[in-house]
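Worked problem 6 (solution included).
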Amino acid sequence: MCNYPLAMAAFTAIFSTLACASDPPAIVPWTPPPVDSAAPAGSPVAVHGQLKVVGTQLLDQAGAPVQLKGVSGTRFDWESRPFAQSKQGLTFMRDNWNLSVIRAAIPTTNTATIPAQLDEIVQNAIDLGVYVLVDWHTEDAVDQQDQAVAFFTAMAEKYGAYPNVIWEPYNEPARQTWAQIKAYHEAVVAAIRAVDPDNLIVLGTPNWSNYVDQAAADPVLGTNLLYTLHFYSCTHTQWLRDRGNTAIAAGLALFVTEFGATYSDGGLVSNNHNYVCEDEANLWFTWMAQNNISGVAWKLDQCTDSSCILTSDAPVNGPWPDNMLSTDVGGAVSGAGIQGGHGLFVVNWIRE
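Solution. The predicted structure is:
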């Protein structure tokens, strides 16, 4: 209770009366809620929050190592049906497969506007608390630099505040030197970082994202950068893991944004490559676990390729129980593996 002497100056009395007319509660400084507060409880983003790269390791917001596991949609202009755009399907994969990341593969032939399919996948991931890779899915991004800068600037302005989003500016460089690829990355990274200072960016590497050792010899400067390593276990064996080891020893953080337990063509029947090489894939999975490397399997679609995860009777919106996942058919063993599809095999890895 305020009690002021009558002898005080009029101004002081008036001021004090106004100031003490009531006794307000103590003022508690306002703290903004965490960025991932909207993620559903128990979801991957609610658990891990804003990711970061420290040395060769991917860490979560608490500083704990995190290994993301998930699947990639096929390119929007290649897909048989819109499985990757299904919110019900993503919910099923999160809750039944333990999926923590989905990849949106964008055709780069017409990106004057952000594809509606991409908005669907990204917004579904935000709503469900799943991480999402935004993949510029081409072998020729060096020739599309202005287009890519404009695209990723617009995407960063739209989604850069969400910890869910991971940028992948170059899927698989095929015919360019690392010097050319690096210059492209520097331009796109600068554009993203002008808007989004902290979300992960995964950088494609030479020869279909195989030669991470070349990138390690002259890395892009910046924070929260990882480098892309792709493998298909019927084609890529210890020699490629050795390149990965060289890159890690040089200080690079790696992310397997695409892999298959198949041949590198995705397991085309027309090439007599419809095989699954589980033994070699398990060596890759062990190596990834030892080095805390995240991975995304190609591809969430239904087709005759051995890399298609779903069978022909899988509905667009799920559910996708195990009998709707492609699997080996116990056929003749080739020099590489067993005939069939890798769906159940990779989903069981995601569940681990």
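Discussion: The CA atoms of residues 167 and 201 lie 5 Å apart.
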